[in-house]
Design goal:
229 residues; alpha+beta; seven-stranded antiparallel sheet; three-stranded antiparallel sheet; 5 helices; 31% helix
Amino acid sequence: MWKKILLYFYILFPFYVFYSYSTSNHSFKSFQKKECEVIDGSKICIAHYNNEAFYYLLDTNQNVRFIADKLVRPYCIGKNNYHDCLIDRTFYFLTLQKYKPYDDKKTMTELLVQDGLDCGDRVNLMSSILHYLKIDDYYYILLPHHMAILVRYKDIHRFKDYIGAYIKGKKYIFIETTSKKPIIKKDPFSYQYLLGDGLVGSFSRNDVKFLFNPVRKEYADPNEIRWGY
């Protein structure tokens, strides 16, 4: 069945997204003092915390629904832990995408037709897919020149040997969305993440700028986060 799902991705999905993009009438507007701007049906927002800020996108348009319904959900039907399987397969889908650095805000359709995704694109795409699948217990994590995502799994005991972030008493698992393989690192402080000029060194706990849940519009103070097993 997985081969049939991949057939959707490699043959049908590019045409589906391109049609959606070619029939849109795109024009960007400045944010000015607004927190969000609706552009071609995509709600692009900006999150602020202390002196840091970043653009984020939470969009469950037809392209996101196609990915979730055709490339993610079918694989997990009948699995013992359907919830966690959806997270894992969404992560797997992201690892199939080419990495390419960008530095601008974009709509979901633009994100999907461009030649590759950067760290922010991948976090926005994963967030949107999970939101459509009714999985909203996660946080964007902003690092120096980088973004990743913290996700709450239902079977958290599966990650008893993994270092995670404890937020309000719950353990969240660090997912590095620029990974070339769908492998979650046991120690998020021991890997190297991707930038436009290649690999850079690992980050420390002190490098975390802020954490943000786009669904609840909720921030988590990095100084109040406990990292541990």
